[in-house]
Specification:
The protein has six helices and no strands. By secondary structure, it is mainly α. The protein is globular and about 30 Å long. About 7% of the residues have low confidence.
Length: 101
Amino acid sequence: MFADAAYLTIKDDISLDLFSANYDDIISFMDVASNDKRRCICYTIFFFRWCYVDNNDERFHDFLKSNEFLFILSAMNGSSKDTDANSDIEKSELQSLNNNF
């Protein structure tokens, strides 16, 4: 239910179709949107909803362990991709948080 509500909120802000997008498309759009926190979060919500449609738990868990997801977490925390996100301490903290998923 949450995935549906979140997706309906952001669907007009993204340029991917829920039923025709693939994993590589979504990650590519996240990379392009990496300097815009709002768009990056929108694509993350889209990804979670897409995983629900695709019913692919393995892909979902792989994403939670990916560098893209770590970057999204750091961006939401206010870190920049080139400086703060690359610090060993922050990576360790984000990985620890990520492992809880």
